[in-house]
């Protein structure tokens, strides 16, 4: 590894002057050393040496998470400290070049607390505001004006509306991953503002945002690859809009049994989801054979498909999966009431790459059919029921903020 020029000069000088000590090293050299301390304890001890070394430690800290965070690991007997804007000011003043800041769980933090980001947020790439119940559009406006380099923001259960989301999207054009789960004030107008302004969006989470029908995704970028939309009141036109970008690889639209009726989900197979690899349709109880057939034909890249509790899929639907899903490796059919021996036989004879079949609670499946499947496919039937599927993309941004 190459040392900074200042360090080389100090080393050269030390050969002729025995009085040179480590305290004579320039800041660039100390920063070089600090960044190569891989152990977190070593980094903390570094700052205990002297005031100068503490300052170097502070200026090179990249992430901060308060102990009130809902993701913070602590003893149950320890009462979390409530963070106010004065605590936040001290922390941001001490660590002025943070790239990741978590205020998740600061339930009483007011909008005015985020005003500090106008002075200290210019380096932030990731901001977590999960369960910050007092944060509204006003607080989000401070984020928009103070954090132009954001690529990730989590607003889980924040009291924001379309106005705040649009303002954020207009200022933070580099946003790539946005968590809006349980933001009940967000509608398709806010989503449209987000996808139209942020051309590099990679992942969006809108689960339980019941004001979103899906039409706001119309015209989304091909970069959009990850979309969580569980328990949303989606419409057929909205489903088509969600896949319209053509780059979607993961889609979760589970628990739509009370929303879309009939074959409204068939829009997924309309030709724009050819790159879709993981599809979660658990509890989409009204999907029928015709819709399943269109999806099976229109999504040739499918590797994992969750159809648990989809009771209206019958023999024709299972046969279409067996015939068209050539890349399918994992299929979830837990508690599908109309999966029968003929349907299981079709899956056995087709889906050549299928390695795991999650199946239990299917009353029309006989013991003989299960044994025949195992004779042909080995021990590929798993009786467990998996509620969460898909790639571990929720922390993909974590590496990005340190690579730049």
TrEMBL record:
What GO CC annotations are associated with the protein? SCF ubiquitin ligase complex
What GO biological process term is on the record, naming one?
SCF-dependent proteasomal ubiquitin-dependent protein catabolic process
**Name of this protein:** F-box/LRR-repeat protein 12
State the species of origin.
Chenopodium quinoa
Provide the taxonomic classification: Eukaryota, Viridiplantae, Streptophyta, Embryophyta, Tracheophyta
